[in-house]
Amino acid sequence: MNKQVSHIGIAALVLLSALIVGTTYWQTWANAGLADRQDNEIRLVAQFSIKRGKIYAADGRTLLATNVNKKRAGRTLYFRRYPTGPIFSDVVGYSTQTRNRTGLEQSYNDYLTGSNANLDTVLSSALDKLKGTTVTGNDLVLTIRPSAQALALRLLRGKCGAVVALDPSTGRVLVMATNPTYNPNLIENRFGVATRTNAPCGAPLVNRATAGKYAPGSTFKMVTAAAALDTGRFTPDSHFYDPGYCEEYGKQVRNAGNPEAPETFGNVNLAFGFEHSINSVFCNVGKTLGAGTVLDYAKRFGFYSLPPLELPESERVASGLYDHGRLFDPRHPDTQVDPGRLAFGQERLAVTPLQMAMVAATIGNHGAEMRPQIVERIVSPAGKTITHLQPDQLGRPIKRQTADELTHMMELVVTGGTGTAASIPGVRVAGKTGTAETGRGNIYTAWFAAFAPADAPKVAIAVVVENQPNGFGGAISAPIAKQVMEALLR
Amino acid sequence: MSTASLTYAGFFFVVYLGAHLATRYAVPFADPYLLPIAGLLTAIGLTEIYRLNPTDAFRQGIWIVVAVALFAATLFFLRHDYRRLERYKYLFGVSAIALLLLPILPLLGLTVNGARLWVHVGSLRFQPGELAKIMLIIFLAAYMREKREVLAQGRLKDWGPLLVIWVLAILVLLETRDLGGGLLYFGIFLAMLYVATARIAYVAGGLGLFLIGAVGVWKVTPHVQDRVTIWLHPWTTSKVYCPISGHLALRQDCQSYQLVKSLYSIGYGGYGGTGLGKGTVANLNGKQIIPDLNTDFIYSALAQELGLIGAAALLLVYMIFVLRGMRIALLAEDGFSKLAAAGLTFGFALQTFIIVGGILRLIPLTGITLPFVSYGGSSVVANFLLLAGLLLVSNRANREMLR
Predict the structure, then answer these.
(1) Are residues A151 and A136 both part of a single domain?
(2) Does A126 lie at the interface with B, CB-CB under 8 angstroms?
(3) Were A224 and a residue from A68, A94, A216, A343 both cysteine, which residue would form a disulfide, CB within 3.0 to 4.6 Å?
(4) Same domain for A177 and A104?
(5) pLDDT of B182-194, one tens digit each?
(6) How many CB pairs lie under 8 A apart between chains A and B?
(7) Which of B250, B269, B284 has the CB atom closest to A48's CB atom?
């Protein structure tokens, strides 16, 4: 009998060993897969047991995101509060229990939760865990100026659109406002209320500054003019004759204004054509250069790639030609793209306000394009700065001379052309208006892109306002740009 | 350290001392490892239950006192010769079946989580299956000791009572819808039959019969089909019919809810665990995630808080218990003692495997308690009686050896 007893004894031990193997499988191998499961509430509780870092505006005082703690089942949980409500929501985003995180809350989640790989943070988080104290994340200080941001949002009230302001020489994002916006504090419990809007358009959760796609209209002439000058094919003095239209494929492409009696300027030069945004002039420039060259220059400015910014990828879109909603990079641009309409910013072009601000900033920065950045510095819970913003040059899309000639042409726009509404007394402002057709009757997208002071710019800006009946960029967007620039230059 | 936890520690120490003195007096030659191991497991269980639900821990404390009292009484009355129990083998057999059938009775029975395993008198609940298990082992040990030789020959007449038991076990399984219990009883039966007859063919045949029975039950019982589906596919990506609510839902939000949440709990433990008392058992709204955490799923709470190191150590403690139990069976001189000790030890190991294996998705999950650790009065009492049985056998064997 003893042999049999040892046999079942071994069988029993084998069964129990299988339990050790099973436990090892779930706790090591399958561990990560389980943690990623959507319905894993333990993971969620762990996330909310961390005291997320606070987020501040550029002044280091204006609190954009903070925590309130609640006791639940003997454990302190930290829930997000956003003191500035809708003013920074599209940049800061939200972090809630039931929805995916957005904005900087998403892209800087590692830093905000103290789980980034930075040595200081790793040590202090591990120590917190060992001591059983709450893990505290790192704070963010943004580059955005709170008062200018609030002003921009106020100016957009009742309209749909966006304002992006950059520091041309460093790439700092000074203002990133979009309307309609939402109150991030309501996302968790009153999502329906949070996403309701009084503005005459929908999608308040979309950051129009980085993910809004708009026909650029005449603001794209900055790119076309840059190509014209930089290739050496044209100078600001190049001569054109404007009959009020431009011939393309045997058809007349008319200047802006009353389609029955378009403005006619006669003998002009390139600078004058830019100043008064004469479509026929740029149509001819486009025909001469070819769509391929114009698109090449657009790519140099960053078109056809996601604008580099710290926001999540899903909240940024690339600028360029769009065909049936998809980015369209023509293989044979000279046959696939209408060069004349491309040159004055129509065709199938769609751009983000951020991209146009980057174009203006590059021209202002003498042709060097800086990476736009929104996080000024990251500060550990102990008050130590872990990283701070390093200006980063993305490239040099155009020559210095081109940029300076273009700057001069853009100054003319504000002093005597279509953009006089943006002039600031005592400051040299360089700008470009845009009034893009939307394909719906007299409804236009009103644009203004500018930088100031023209000789040593401190701010570059792009303003877009959607759905303006008979609205011109010079009348609607230029005054907004002016006020925001004034606030930033003060 | 709060006064409450110190009180519990003091209380536990006194109870353990009582149990120790009882064994010193009644079974001085018994194996010295088993009681400390049982004490350790009980203490781990009580600590975890206290951490999860202090009210339950208080009740568990009372049950531990009751169990230790019964343990001491058993040792005291059977200290001279437990083998007289052999004489009452049919009484044990019939009582075991009666206890198993008790929950089916209309007024007494209670259905919990789809299985009818409980008996309740007023607010007092009891799982008679736990006690039935021990009685069944005593019956089988006595019966098989007597019929060893003839069973090995395979005469139908001698097989009669065993087949009756098998048919009854399957019927009980069908009626109570208790897959885990059925597996446990039948596994013990086969193991003891193998020890008694040394015929591996019986084990194979028995397993075959069990499989046929199990498939039959699976065919006719939706509850059992459910368990198997949950085991094979706990997660669904699209919504399926949820029998609990009657609506469509993801299976992980419906039938496999507890299993899946328990796996999350185990996975979260990782190598080192969160530390005792520092695990996450409640969701963001403060609601306990796994409802049956301190009974059937106590292993997943322990695995989270103690980590792989702690959980593996816990399982090793179970293995030591099994090793000592089998050693007692080896040392025992007579067939009844051998069979009883082997049966009790194998039952202990198999029960551990069925619940933890179910939690770990090695086998379909069926609700059964983790010996000594889970919350539950009947379980604690039954396991201390099991311990008493092993100590009695061991005491006799060692005493004879010293003579």
Answers:
(1) no
(2) no
(3) A343
(4) no
(5) 788 888 988 998 9
(6) 162
(7) B284
Contact residues on chain B for A18, CB-CB shorter than 8 A: 353, 357, 362
Domain count, chain A: 2
**Whole-complex ipTM:** 0.94
Of A27, A19, A26, A68, the C-alpha closest to A48 is A68
Same domain, A188 and A130: no
Sign of CA pseudo-dihedral B249, B253, B254, B255: positive
Chain A residue closest to B265 (CA)? A42
Give me the tens of pLDDT residue by residue for chain A, a chain 490 residues long: 899 999 999 999 999 999 999 999 999 999 888 888 878 888 888 888 889 999 999 999 999 999 999 888 778 899 999 999 999 999 999 998 878 889 999 999 989 988 777 777 778 777 777 777 788 899 999 999 999 999 999 999 989 999 999 999 999 999 999 989 999 999 888 888 888 877 778 888 999 999 999 999 899 999 999 999 999 999 999 989 888 888 777 677 777 765 555 678 888 999 999 999 888 899 899 989 999 999 999 999 999 999 999 999 999 999 999 998 899 998 888 888 888 889 888 888 999 999 999 999 999 999 999 999 999 999 998 889 999 999 999 999 999 999 999 999 999 999 988 888 999 999 999 999 998 888 777 888 999 999 999 999 999 999 999 988 877 878 899 999 999 999 999 8
- The CA distance from B187 to B197, in Å, is 15
Interface of B with A in 330-359 (CB under 8 A): 330, 335, 338, 342, 345-346, 349-350, 352-353, 356-357
Question: And the tokens for A224?
Answer: 């076309």
The bridge status of strand A459-469 relative to strand A63-72 is unpaired
The structure tokens 């987020």 sit at A55
Partner-chain residue, chosen from B269, B283, B303, that has the shortest CB–CB distance to A45: B283
Q: What is the DSSP letter of B103?
A: G
Residue A188 lies inside a defined structural domain of this protein: yes
Decide: B181 and B129 in contact? Cβ < 8 Å.
Answer: yes
Residue B125 confidence (pLDDT) above 70:
no
- Contact indicator for A488, A459 with CB cutoff of 8 Å: yes
In a domain, A370, yes or no: yes
- Strands A139-142, A55-56: pairing is parallel
State whether A136 and A274 are in the same domain: no
Among candidate residues A90, A122, A142, the one where a domain is terminated: A142
Q: A219 and A363: one domain?
A: yes
Cβ of residue A28 closer than 8 Å to a chain B Cβ: yes
Note whether A16 contacts B191, CB cutoff 8 Å: no
Partners of A378 in beta bridges: A140, A387
Alpha-carbon gap: B70 to the closest alpha carbon of chain A (Å): 27
Identify whether residues A402 and A255 lie together within a single domain.
yes
Chain A nearest CA to B363, separation (Å): 11
A34 touching B (Cβ < 8 Å): yes
Q: Could you tell me the residue range of the domain that residue A427 belongs to?
A: 146-374+391-489
Residue with tokens 């709060």: B2
Say yes or no: A267 and A408 in one domain. Answer: yes
**Interval B7-23: pLDDT, tens:** 999 999 999 999 999 99
Q: Where are the domains of chain B?
A: 1-77+256-403, 86-220
Nearest-neighbour CA in chain B from A133: distance (Å): 11
pTM: 0.75
Q: What is the CATH number of the domain that holds A166?
A: 3.40.710.10
Please check whether residues A192 and A113 belong to one and the same domain. no
Question: Does residue A380 belong to any structural domain of this protein?
Answer: no
Cα separation, A359 vs A301, whole angstroms: 6
- Residue A353, CA distances (Å) to A39, A156, A462 in order: 38, 14, 6
Q: Which residues of B touch A132 (CB under 8 A)?
A: 275, 278
